[in-house]
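---------- Forwarded message ----------

FYI, see the Phospholipid scramblase record below. Original note from H. follows.
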Amino acid sequence: THNLPPGLEYLNQLDQIIIHQQVELLEAILGTESSSKYEIKNPLGQRVYFAVEENGCFDRKLCSPLRAFTIRIADNAGREVIRVIRPLRCNSCCFPCFLQELEVQSPPGTIAGYVVQNWDPFLPKFTIQNQSKEDVLKIIGPCATCGCFEDVDFEVKALNEMTTIGKISKYWSGFVNDVFTNTANFGIQVPVDLDVRIKAVMIGACFLIDLMFFENSLDGL
């Protein structure tokens, strides 16, 4: 473990990561948007990281799920260990030349890998890349991501797209929660021996999937 990026030793023995979005009281009542905050937990429900999204109010109101952001992920000692950077990109299958791309750094300033959206007319598809931009894994979502009364699974696959090795799941949390807040509960399941840097990139992929497919609030009602 001495070769691991500082702070990622927490991920070394994990095959499941839980991400829980925290909802501010004012946001829950009024439907207003504030900077997203997340707890990242192990399967026992113990918090291992805390994440905060950084962007301007202008970005959140004007660009909403398309917005650029930086998410800083810190351990329980307050040390930033992962940084997720998303530039402003297109979110339409009609414009495949400017699709989503996410950069994950660990430690901050050092590339751990990338999440790259792949064009497909029917399915959400992404490629997980390492720090050298070499393809490592694929993520393939369902045709419909509404997830009414059930979980929504994005399958993590080998590069041949035939072998499923894990998944990113959006857990259905109930009608009231889904309609009146934009709170998110996700689970990431990957092989325990997966490179911890790629596990960190998977966390970034989870944030991207959340904003692209599940961002909602009272603003749109």
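H. also flagged this: The radius of gyration is 16 Å.
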